[in-house]
Amino acid sequence: MRDQASGPRVLLKRLRELMQEPLEPQERLDRIVRDIASNMVAEVCSLYVLRADSVLELYATEGLNPNAVHLAQLRLGQGLVGTIAASARPLNLSNAQEHPAFAYLPETGEEIYNSFLGVPVLRAGRTLGVLVVQNKTMRHYRDDEVEALETTAMVIAEMIATGDLARLTRPGLELDLRRPVSFTGLSFNDGVGLGHVVLHEPRIVVTNLFNEDSEEEVRRLESSLGSLRLSIDDMLERRDVAFEGEHRQVLEAYRMFANDRGWVRRLEEAIRNGLTAEAAVEKVQSDMRARMLHMTDPYLRERMSDFDDLANRLLRQLMGRGPEDVAASLPKDAIIVARSMGAAELLDYPRDKLRGLVLEDGAATSHVVIVARAMGIPVAGQMKGAVSMAENGDAIIVDGEEGTIHLRPQSDLEAAYAEKVRFRARRQEVYRELRKKPSMTRDGVQVDLLMNAGLAVDLPQLAEAGAAGIGLFRTELQFMVASTFPRAEAQEKLYRDVLEAARGKPVTFRTIDIGGDKVLPYFKGAIQEENPALGWRAIRLTLDRPGLLRTQIRALLKASGGRELKLMLPMVTELGEIAQAREIIDREVRHLSRFAHHLPTSLKLGAMLEVPSLLFQLDELMKAVDFVSVGSNDLFQFVMAVDRGNTQLANRFDTLSAPFLRVLKLIADAGIRNHTPVTLCGELAGKPISAMALIGLGFRSISMSPASIGPVKAMLTELPLDELTEFFDDNLMAPAQGLPMRALLQAFADDRSIPL
């Protein structure tokens, strides 16, 4: 009996020889289909390639009319070939003409053939074409023949992906792999970036497809699978918070997939058919991805990214490559494309090469977006499908203003965006000219425009943006990007560098705000919570772990010697927490005094107003602290019962709605009444329209990302505050014509030519 695997192995060996011969693309294709037909004892073998206009064009054939090559065409979904391309699944028929999808193309002469086997040409789960064999006799092709054709299709996919067939494409037409694609999602940070794709979790490109020794390749696969399983088990044994909840569920899924015998058996079969272990992983994963893309079950579709990640991990094990290899070869105009990523991961990339960030998930208030905003790069989010459609090195445009991206853009679109970038540069020049002008409304009212920061990379922007100071220094970012708790000396150095960079301008340090969605992988004391945003985080955590807070306070006191120190407590819920924190601070002051340390000239203690309970003790709060900062992101989240990380709700509720503006008005009025300075730091401060609303409500100090200061100042200098105050008197409690406040504010600005 013939060894069923010998056929595919012989065919792959022949294909390898063909790939190495110096042939023209059409001649190579013609010989490939001839060899496939001969190997599979088929009377017909044809290759159809998918064009960018969703048409499948016959590119090569053995057995059909050769004059039909580059003329015979089928739309995606039309006929058997179109059905295979649309579904990304093979068709194995003993009598093709009885199938309801059969479509007769008279120019090909295929009516005399009955049996039909067609497989999709797949790469990374995307259909690039269809490969078909046919016979006159009615027969059902064996499973090993289906496998052989699928394996061959993978080789052809690489030919298409490398651009070998581009010379065969008629003028004015493009292959599907290179077609321009646009996505519309959400704007997470303004700006426009033109550059080239860098996939954050890049697909490993397998170039060595054919094996010399199947048994050796199976041993390599088993060894790498063993290492992969051990690494997953090791992560699951760690009990810290980074691997609890949803993270743990994903790892459990990885472990299940990594031990799945069906998956491993398919990998081994592909190797025994002649592929290397790497090529086997890519083939099996591409088949699986293509099938899962067409599943209707949302849970199974979501698991697709788990399969992708697992396959990538296995490929890295096999090829001995790590993520650091990608960073080393970064283009000078890199635009990172990711499903999701952490703030620390973004900081691993060199800032001078970053031009933008694209996320399939995320929200405007997620921490990676906050860090990207601090770095001044445009961010577009909720770009579902962008990762699978992008390839490393693809040209890409990120429009952070509109919340759109353009993959492989056409030249006229690229030229239009290049002009848009030049226009923005000219506008930035105008903003730079505003830096030294007083930060005043048109009728002479001073408003302090401060900046948010959190890392040393932010500090040069203090002078560049013309900020009046740092209204929020997020000390936890230093903890989030470290692999262990930063030592007291490292903290002290950072805080001293910040104060020196400020050159006498005020700096407000927020004490460490971890917990909730701010995960420290090395923090062993963290616990799993059903509602982490409402749980053990910020001041609650540091009062329970006073050693953390004491170390930070001591570092801040030492760094501030001879200067004013402004300290702010996050997520205060009741005044007793302020008293407890003040006691810890006083104790550290006494300790340092005892050892004659140089202390701050003054120490001001403030609280962040993020929890609605403080709205019912505003006067008591204002008397208990030296200043108050409104954390508008969390306050809005808690007032409106909206999880700020929930992508389904990201655009559902408006921060400029009348109820929330009334809450902010209460706070501003309480500050004025008690002579307590109030600053607002959060997303509201960074948009000209919402900054205008805040000023109209009574805020005279707002803190934002450095890039937002120019546009907000341009608005401020044209703002007639007396008219805006009158506008709120008339509309805040009863908006005119029942219109949304945002629409009314926009009309107010338009009528007075205020730039928003």
TrEMBL record:
<dbReference type="InterPro" id="IPR036637">
    <property type="entry name" value="Phosphohistidine_dom_sf"/>
</dbReference>
<dbReference type="GO" id="GO:0009401">
    <property type="term" value="P:phosphoenolpyruvate-dependent sugar phosphotransferase system"/>
</dbReference>
<dbReference type="InterPro" id="IPR040442">
    <property type="entry name" value="Pyrv_kinase-like_dom_sf"/>
</dbReference>
<dbReference type="GO" id="GO:0016301">
    <property type="term" value="F:kinase activity"/>
</dbReference>
<dbReference type="GO" id="GO:0005737">
    <property type="term" value="C:cytoplasm"/>
</dbReference>
<keyword id="KW-0813">Transport</keyword>
<dbReference type="InterPro" id="IPR029016">
    <property type="entry name" value="GAF-like_dom_sf"/>
</dbReference>
<dbReference type="InterPro" id="IPR036618">
    <property type="entry name" value="PtsI_HPr-bd_sf"/>
</dbReference>
<dbReference type="Pfam" id="PF05524">
    <property type="entry name" value="PEP-utilisers_N"/>
</dbReference>
<dbReference type="GO" id="GO:0046872">
    <property type="term" value="F:metal ion binding"/>
</dbReference>
<dbReference type="Pfam" id="PF02896">
    <property type="entry name" value="PEP-utilizers_C"/>
</dbReference>
<dbReference type="InterPro" id="IPR050499">
    <property type="entry name" value="PEP-utilizing_PTS_enzyme"/>
</dbReference>
<keyword id="KW-0479">Metal-binding</keyword>
<dbReference type="InterPro" id="IPR015813">
    <property type="entry name" value="Pyrv/PenolPyrv_kinase-like_dom"/>
</dbReference>
<dbReference type="InterPro" id="IPR006318">
    <property type="entry name" value="PTS_EI-like"/>
</dbReference>
<keyword id="KW-0762">Sugar transport</keyword>
<dbReference type="InterPro" id="IPR003018">
    <property type="entry name" value="GAF"/>
</dbReference>
<dbReference type="Pfam" id="PF00391">
    <property type="entry name" value="PEP-utilizers"/>
</dbReference>
<dbReference type="InterPro" id="IPR023151">
    <property type="entry name" value="PEP_util_CS"/>
</dbReference>
<keyword id="KW-0460">Magnesium</keyword>
<keyword id="KW-0808">Transferase</keyword>
<keyword id="KW-0418">Kinase</keyword>
<dbReference type="InterPro" id="IPR008731">
    <property type="entry name" value="PTS_EIN"/>
</dbReference>
<protein>
    <recommendedName>
        <fullName>phosphoenolpyruvate--protein phosphotransferase</fullName>
        <ecNumber>2.7.3.9</ecNumber>
    </recommendedName>
</protein>
<keyword id="KW-0598">Phosphotransferase system</keyword>
<comment type="similarity">
    <text>Belongs to the PEP-utilizing enzyme family.</text>
</comment>
<keyword id="KW-0963">Cytoplasm</keyword>
<dbReference type="Pfam" id="PF01590">
    <property type="entry name" value="GAF"/>
</dbReference>
<dbReference type="InterPro" id="IPR000121">
    <property type="entry name" value="PEP_util_C"/>
</dbReference>
<dbReference type="InterPro" id="IPR008279">
    <property type="entry name" value="PEP-util_enz_mobile_dom"/>
</dbReference>
<dbReference type="GO" id="GO:0008965">
    <property type="term" value="F:phosphoenolpyruvate-protein phosphotransferase activity"/>
</dbReference>
